[in-house]
Amino acid sequence: MKQAFVWIGALIVGAILGLLQISSINETANFIATIYVRLFQLLAVPTIVLAVTTTLATLGSGPDAGRIFRHAISYTLLTTLVAAAVGLLLFVVIAPGHMQLPVTDGELPIANSQLTYSDHLLSVIPNNIVKPFLEGNVLSLLILAAAVGIALSQMADTPQKKTVVNFLQGIQEVLFTLIRGLIVILPVGIVAFAAQLSSQLSAGVIADSLGKYVAVVLGGNLLQFFVVLPLFLLFKGMNPVRVMTKMMPAIMMALFTKSSAATLPVTMQTAEERLGVKSKVSRFVLPICTTINMNGCAAFILVTSLFVMQQGGIELSWPTMLTWLLISVVSAIGNAGVPMGCYFLTLSLMSGINAPIAVLGIILPIYTIIDMVETAVNVWSDSCVCAMTDHDLNNQ
Fold first, then answer.
1. Which residues 6+ apart lie within 8 Å of 362 measured at CB?
2. DSSP for 130-199, written as a single string
3. Which among 186, 383, 164, 118 has a CA at the least distance from the CA of 275?
């Protein structure tokens, strides 16, 4: 409880500092926030690789590996599909309608505008062992880590195998020690993140015509966060308040870093040490969920795609909307857990169907809040999938 008050205090202090609009304070906040994001990203890549590798290596060919995987994938697909369905329901009920503001292509970041979804999928397949580490390509790293872990699990139980596994587990413990140190000084980062956000918000203007769109996106995410996912936990006989309270450090970190991949080390450490999830579950389920369990992203991709298509005069019939519901789920599964990952993926999808992607330029100034909320939803969903999987294994 004391820790929660410290975080809330840091949030308030940061927000006030950002609202002051003092350039030196804003520059310092940006500098500190960048340091925090880079440090967690630095730890995220080796944490992902080591978690999957050591877990698969130690699980071996026993029944646990298959059971954990089946439960994790089932819950991931189900929660992601429900998240997109909630977004679609709100889109139909609230009906954002057409915008009246002129838009130009110059308002868009164009770095990834030519990237197709097929290119995104092809980039997952590594052609050398170094490139995925340099680029932080999470899906490629998962493939490599799974291959090495499975190979180790199939090896005979020799001293050489034990040496390799012990070495990898030792490095993993070092990483968790570093993570604990970063969590201790997390309030400093929260001040910086809050100052950065409030400064950006006070400098921008949210157009009235986007109000309903924002209500749909944020409303869908909030319903998923506070209603849908807790219902999943209740259905499994678990206390959602307890689970959420225990996982709050990871959720808070996700909110401010806007990156589920960067938050992964905190999510794993929190699940094991606060929630009591077995390490063989958390270190296998959470790295996978960080890549494929994107509840918030699925809702954003669907709602934003429908909104953009609507502006281009595309008829949004029920078959069209249901088709895009499935597309959004599949797209979210392949999306990278990095800041603005959903934004650029949606941009790529809309480019592929010649929709008016310039509309995304108007969404961009308010995407900071959307990205924060959807990342928190993603990590909360990861936590729920992990908790439910662990609960299932304990009761089998």
1. 99, 101, 103, 107, 207, 210
2. SHHHHHT-HHHHHHHHHHHHHHHHHS---HHHHHHHHHHHHHHHHHHHHHHHHHHTHHHHHHHHHHHHHH
3. 383
Q: In this structure, what token pair is assigned to residue 35?
A: 């340091």
- With 0-12 / 13-18 / 19 or more C-beta atoms within 10 angstroms meaning exposed / middle / buried, residue 200 is middle
Q: Which residues contact 112 (CB under 8 A, 6 or more apart)?
A: 344, 347, 348
Tens digits of residue pLDDT in 61-104: 555 667 888 888 899 999 999 999 999 999 999 888 766 544 44
**What number of other Cβ atoms are within 10 A of residue 394's Cβ?**
10
Tens digit of pLDDT for each residue in 143-185?
788 788 888 888 888 888 889 989 998 998 888 788 778 778 8
Structure tokens at 187: 């309030």
Place of tokens 């980062």: 189
User: Which of 31-35, 224-228, 373-377 is predicted least confidently?
Assistant: 31-35
How far apart are alpha carbons 120 and 117 in whole angstroms?
A: 5
Interatomic CA distance for residues 196 and 18, integer angstroms: 6
Distances (CA, A) of 320 to 126, 323, 324, 347, 373: 34, 5, 6, 18, 27
Rounded to whole angstroms, how far apart are CA atoms 361 and 104? 8
pTM over 0.85? The answer is no
- Neighbour-count burial of 234, counting CB atoms closer than 10 A to its CB (0-12 exposed, 13-18 middle, 19+ buried): exposed
Give every CB contact of residue 305 below 8 A, 6+ residues apart in sequence: 324, 327, 328, 346, 349, 350, 355
